[in-house]
## 1
Amino acid sequence: MTAPPDDLIRPFQIEGMGVRGRLVRLGPTLDEILGRHDYPDLVSHLLGEAVALSCALAGALKFDGVFTLQTKGDGPVTTLVADFKSPGDLRGYAQFDADAVGSIDSSSNPSIPRLQGAGHIAFTVDQGADTERYQGIVALEGQTLADCAHNYFRESEQIETAIVLACDKAGAEAPWRGGAIMLQRLPEGDPSLLARGVEVERDEVSEDDWRRVVTMLASTRDSELTDPGLAGDELLYRLFHEDGVRIFEPTALQPGCRCSTGRAERILRQLPDTELPELAVDNQLIVTCEFCNASYTFPLEQFMASSQGFER
């Protein structure tokens, strides 16, 4: 028996009503992203949900570039960043107060206000130098990260959206897994979804049909979204078989950090030469990527010599 496919975005449509959706299943890719950091489980869980959410949102767009989800708050977890580069490269990181996070009872299922406090959530689409960069920002409002996304669509895009998210692992040494399902009832007309100039598929759906499919979606258990023995297509059938669900070709997902020796060197070249010796440790300059935790080391003497005459 072959294992159910992981690390994908599966577009789907509920028959007879035109409701479009995206299923996200994350296995080894998410485990690698979270495993590169020694985060507390509470932080890894929240970042895993953010990565799953970024995949669901980016998967609803037709674009060539980078989609970034970022939260900023004044709580124990100050920053979450989940980065999606088309067609499916993922990376992410978190910033937090270790002592404050350690004081939270993880079994209490802490809310977004408890973990991140007051702040905002931003969605950014960057399609390159020749296109307009778009960013939508709303306050961090709601008990969960999915609630915050619902608030964004309600306040900024006026698009009815239903999302479920999950991230978990079966035990202390078990791998992290994550998942998401997003449904959207897209309005008539031509409002942008998250980014100007990004194409979005649109269909009409009645109010009664929309309420019914949202109720079905709400019945999804976290364990179903993260169960390695349950194929994503089977989960969609469980939820929407009464109407029928049509699935389309998936998008593969994989870890995809964009850091490199050249990027690290360019960061150092942007600093005044007078500051470099203060940053050196044992005459070595070290740049560590926040996303993948990779480190790039440069001999201070060699770097200073190569920077002579460099025009900033």
## 2
Amino acid sequence: MCKVDFLICGAQKCGTTALDFYLRQHPLLCFPSKKELHYFDDDAVFAGGIPDYAAYHAWFAPEARHRLLGETTPIYLYKPEVMPRIRAYNPDMKLIAVLRHPVDRAYSHWNMFRARGENVVGFREALEQELAIMAAPENSDASGYTCIRRGLYAQQLTRLWHHFPREQTLILRHERLLAQPEAVLARVCDFLGMPRLQGITARRVHAYPYPEPMAEADRRLLLDCFRQDTEQLQSLLAWDCSAWLA
């Protein structure tokens, strides 16, 4: 076990914490003590070219029973520079992503910052600021709010598949992870080539009430923002995304 074998790479606010929680119960999987190592998105680590991966591996303490190493950092799917770094590290890496209704994901994203006390603007203003950034010629994925851009899943998956074959990726639906965790985990274990987990008890992780529901005008704005990407996602994954478009 000289390299990390799989990553839960995205998307943020889509159930990655719950999936991480479930998989940590698997006796054959070794996870680091810390969720979200943020190794492959740390520009300083890669500033000098190919890094010494010892600092990354130091997070893992595999035991004799462990068969695979894995970690969860949901920003990996989003940042364009990350996948080439992962491929250079391990071209056989298996990558798992969970996708959620992009409108709901966007509001959850903003509320996460609100709960942390990091919000300085309201939700609508955050969306308008981001749309202005996206419309600018010097558009940067690293700048400003990313409530919208992180929900453009088709763009991110297309980029992922440019660096990794589709058979090394598993794309899951957030709503099915919530409703049928045992069935979803069976798919994950099969994908990883591991025995299936038994007796899973559903658990909500990082679920908290919002102070108020999303305004209908904001929902309509976001539906328009995501429509083209979601339609493309339907074709890419052969998913029925009608509920995401309604």
